[in-house]
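Tip: read the tokens left to right.
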């Protein structure tokens, strides 16, 4: 099982839930190779970084927990392994499907090849994948987001909060998905100040190199950007973003979190006074909604895209400094209205 060093021992939340998560055996009939109409509940396979990242994977886990509680179903979630192949992901998804879980969800675009292969073998089971829309199979829900819209708002916030007209962006991996975060952020910041200086860095070229799972890499990148003069840094880097937040706090500059409201994460509590806001996407809602649709007998399939207009992406306002900044909030309100009415088209690259 993958074990990655986490800032402030992010396992606090997971430890208290271990009993619930281990209760995934049961006696329901295993699905045959053609699928099964019966279900044990929800199956969830985590992305790189695993549970405890206080970001993307933990958002999926929150939806998993809500589904278990509200729908009164059981569930099983499985961690990734270091250096695993697509074949390992296939085996993980098949394990969940064969055991009778429905839906089976892959958290992250890295599951695309595995979802395509396994969904074809189990046509009566609904599969979901977050952050990818390649698979158009009849039993697959592609759960995707307009990350660039939330990132645009993050850019506006950064440009309003900086005292040096100098901000930064740290991307986990140099791929099109993370380019969306950068593009929106840069455009939003430049809408406030066209001459603003923006540092940009990607931690790795591939996920396998640890761009989404290495807080030390995130910390080093942030240190460099702060040394260069940036006083607000936005990280779209999964678990690696914790290093960015730690560095920002140590230098008393602003960090902007991603995916989950990182101001409210227990493992990041000692840094929260330096987390201005977080660009959120409702991964929890996507996971829950798919589970509910299966439970209701009307499974979601096809592309399910969340946006600012649907409430699927946005900015967290938990930090009172952020929430009570009237000038910043007015700028965000104007930007949000423009995105929703179409007068602002946010770039994706």
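Filled-in amino acids:
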């Amino acid at each position: 099982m993958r074990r990655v060093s986490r800032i402030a021992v992010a396992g606090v939340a997971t430890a208290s839930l271990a009993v619930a998560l281990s209760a995934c055996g049961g006696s329901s009939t295993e699905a045959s190779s053609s699928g099964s109409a019966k279900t044990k509940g929800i199956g969830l396979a985590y992305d790189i970084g695993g549970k405890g990242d206080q970001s993307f994977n933990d958002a999926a886990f929150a939806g998993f927990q809500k589904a278990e509680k509200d729908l009164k179903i059981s569930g099983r979630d499985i961690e990734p392994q270091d250096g695993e192949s697509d074949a390992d992901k296939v085996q993980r998804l098949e394990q969940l499907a064969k055991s009778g879980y429905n839906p089976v969800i892959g958290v992250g675009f890295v599951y695309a090849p595995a979802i395509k292969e396994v969904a074809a073998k189990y046509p009566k089971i609904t599969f979901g994948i977050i952050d990818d829309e390649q698979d158009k199979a009849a039993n697959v829900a592609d759960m995707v987001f307009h990350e660039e819209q939330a990132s645009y708002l993050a850019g506006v916030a950064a440009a309003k909060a900086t005292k040096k007209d100098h901000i930064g962006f740290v991307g986990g991996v140099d791929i099109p998905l993370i380019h969306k975060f950068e593009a929106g952020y840069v455009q939003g910041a430049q809408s406030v100040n066209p001459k603003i200086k923006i540092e940009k860095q990607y931690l790795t070229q591939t996920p396998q190199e640890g761009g989404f799972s290495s807080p030390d890499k995130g910390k080093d990148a942030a240190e460099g950007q702060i040394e260069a003069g940036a006083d607000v840094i936005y990280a779209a880097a999964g678990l690696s973003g914790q290093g960015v937040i730690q560095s920002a706090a140590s230098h008393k500059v602003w960090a902007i979190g991603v995916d989950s409201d990182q101001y409210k994460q227990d493992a990041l509590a000692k840094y929260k006074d330096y987390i201005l806001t977080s660009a959120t996407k409702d991964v929890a809602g996507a996971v829950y909604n798919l589970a509910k649709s299966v439970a209701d007998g009307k499974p979601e399939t096809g592309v399910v895209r969340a946006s600012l207009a649907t409430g699927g992406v946005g900015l967290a306002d938990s930090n009172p400094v952020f929430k009570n900044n009237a000038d910043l909030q007015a700028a965000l309100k104007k930007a949000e209205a423009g995105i929703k009415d179409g007068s602002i088209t946010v770039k994706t690259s």
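The radius of gyration is 20 Å. The chain has twelve helices and twelve strands.
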